[in-house]
Amino acid sequence: MKLSLQGGFGEKGRTSVAVEDNGTRVMLDAGIKVGATGHEYYPMLAGPADEIDALIISHAHEDHVGALCRLIALGYGGPIYMTAETRQEMPTTLAQYAEAGDLNAYLPPDDQIHLFQPGETLVCGDLMVTTGASGHVAGGVWMAVASGGKQVVYAADMVPESTVFAMDPLPACDLLILDCSYGCDEVPGTVRAREIAQWVAEHPDGCLLPTPLSGRSLELMAALDTPFAIEKGMRHALHDQIMASNALRASASELLRARLAAAIDWEVGEPLPASPLIVHDGMGVAGPSRAAIAAADAAGMPVLLTGHLPPGSPADLLRRRGRADWIRMPTHPTLNENVALWENAGRPAVLGHSCETAVLRQMQDAIPALKTELHTGQSYTID
Fold it and tell me: In this protein, which residues make up the domain named Metallo-beta-lactamase (predicted)?
């Protein structure tokens, strides 16, 4: 079984892996790299796009699905597997991150998209792909690809201890591709959530909270215990995430429904509200947060950033000027959670995605099986 590391290895963004055995090649995710240009914006394909037998998308964040139109433009015409929740959120992501020409000409047709539910097994030639809920977003999945008695588990993005989303346990495997976005951070998510709630409580007259449309937005809503406003266009998508069958923990569904119902609607161009305001996206690159960040900066409104900040993004520049604070909202595994995932999977060989090489090397003390010498453009073979 051969793996081609097409994006996200030794770097953050354009996450993509191709798995090949017995003449069948399956591609897992097709993301873009925010802040990059040219070829570095897209996955580094291991071969012609028309030689890929199947594409499976883990969820609809830009670093996992943003290159879909480009892949089709390069000649991919095979099946695209995703959950119903990912299918619903995908157009918004592509509208923000796909090139306009690709979006207009190569948006995948409905008959190319095949829906599945977390927990289903997909058959792609000689490859069997088991899926499970990732705990990262509604409809997000991890994938386990098996062939010839060997199995690789691709974690995609996951949150083992999410208070909002349910996650299925990973199976034993020969190779585990872990979400290493947080590197050596050991601070539990519950602690971060309390820190965010405290920060918001200290700014009762208004503050701005940029966040991705899916996943972290619900985590933030669950953490806040004060009234808040949302960008009006988010309401329908947030409602659909909350109502997604079996995606949320039972304890979170009722709480989030009540908080969404009580949220105040805000639109770009209106005066900023005298309350916490949640807008998307989290980096200020696209969506209403770009205009909201500019308005908050001009008005002197406090801003709290809670996720990845690509260098040069509006949110990153705001923080560098001292105009925004940053507290990580836990939407990826901590170091301790990744160690537990590795041990429960049988302590297999490990690759880390969505993390720079220098940080992966620091993680080796806790996960000795972590292979840090591999990066985007290289391959790995499970004998």
Answer: 13-203
- Which tens digit of pLDDT belongs to each residue from 3-34? 999 999 999 999 999 999 999 999 999 999 99
Domains of the chain: 2-184+331-381 (3.60.15.10), 189-326 (3.40.50.10890)
- 181 beta partners: none
211 is written with which tokens?
A: 């966040």
User: Could you tell me if 176 and 3 are in contact, meaning their C-beta atoms sit under 8 angstroms apart?
Assistant: no
* pTM of the predicted structure, to 2 decimals: 0.93
Q: 213 — phi, psi (to 5°)? A: -65, -35
Distance CA 306, CA 197 (A): 12
Q: What are the C-alpha distances in Å from 57 to residues 18, 335, 348?
A: 12, 25, 24
Helices 84-97 and 235-243, packing angle to 10 deg:
150
Task: Give the contacts of 359 (CB within 8 A, at least 6 positions apart).
Answer: 180, 183, 184
Q: Tell me what pLDDT residue 383 has.
A: 80
* Token pair for 84: 């119903």
- Cα torsion for 178, 182, 188, 189, to the nearest 10°? -90
Q: What are the tens digits of pLDDT across the range 114-134?
A: 999 999 999 999 999 999 999
308 vs 380, more confident: 380
- Are 382 and 4 in contact by the 8 Å Cβ rule? The answer is no
38, 50, 110, 100: which is closest to 77 by C-alpha?
Answer: 50
Burial 57-93 (b: 16+ CB within 10 A, else e): bbbbbbbbbbbbbbbbbbebebbbbbbebbbbbbebb
